[in-house]
């Protein structure tokens, strides 16, 4: 069962533009793998996720920069809610000490419904295994757009698949 938390964040520009509301959808997922190993896959070996989870992640390619570096541009071909989708993201920030990173979507299917979209990942160690904290931060193009629950479910499933891969190595 996925437990989610939705909150609204008013951006600095919201005082100027009343329709600009940044929303957040987040969840925490306990996993068996160490925080360092799981973070290493998402940060430095992102391209391997297509091999680990080919049912939903068809390809992960780097367009600019290098794996594990800020400002790198990465594209994803994936299946979400039964549809083939693409996303091009820039790695906005990496904090290797805290196993934390942020991806900002700059092209693709998500931007048909959202003016902006970010994925934030943090993997925290615990006594046995670790906890993956996913946070999706987005601005809807209009109020009739639904919250991206299927996208959150996809990244949770992705983390679980990477966990299974790492614990079966």
UniProtKB/TrEMBL annotation:
Identify the Gene3D superfamilies for this entry.
3.30.530.20
InterPro entries (UniProt xref): Bet_v_I/MLP (IPR000916), MLP-like_ligand-binding (IPR051761), START-like_dom_sf (IPR023393)
Domain Bet v I/Major latex protein: where?
20-169
Q: Name one Pfam family in it.
A: Bet_v_1
Q: Where is the signal peptide?
A: none
**GO biological process terms on file:** defense response
What is this protein's name? Answer: Bet v I/Major latex protein domain-containing protein
Protein source organism: Psophocarpus tetragonolobus (Winged bean)
Q: What is the lineage of its organism?
A: Eukaryota, Viridiplantae, Streptophyta, Embryophyta, Tracheophyta
């Amino acid at each position: 069962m996925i437990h989610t938390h939705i909150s609204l964040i008013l951006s600095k520009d919201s005082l100027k533009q009343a329709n600009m509301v940044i929303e957040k959808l987040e969840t925490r997922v306990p996993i068996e793998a160490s925080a360092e190993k799981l973070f290493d896959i998402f940060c430095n070996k992102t391209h391997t996720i297509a091999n680990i989870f080919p049912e939903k992640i068809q390809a992960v390619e780097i367009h600019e920069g290098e794996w594990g570096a800020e400002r790198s541009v990465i594209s994803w071909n994936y299946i979400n809610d039964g549809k083939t989708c693409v996303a091009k993201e820039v790695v906005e920030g990496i904090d290797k000490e805290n196993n934390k990173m942020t991806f900002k979507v700059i092209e693709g299917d998500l931007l048909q419904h959202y003016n902006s979209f970010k994925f934030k990942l943090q993997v925290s160690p615990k006594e046995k295994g670790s906890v993956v904290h996913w946070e999706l931060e987005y601005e809807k193009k209009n109020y009739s757009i639904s919250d991206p629950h299927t996208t959150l479910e996809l990244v949770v499933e992705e983390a679980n698949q990477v966990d299974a891969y790492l614990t079966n190595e």
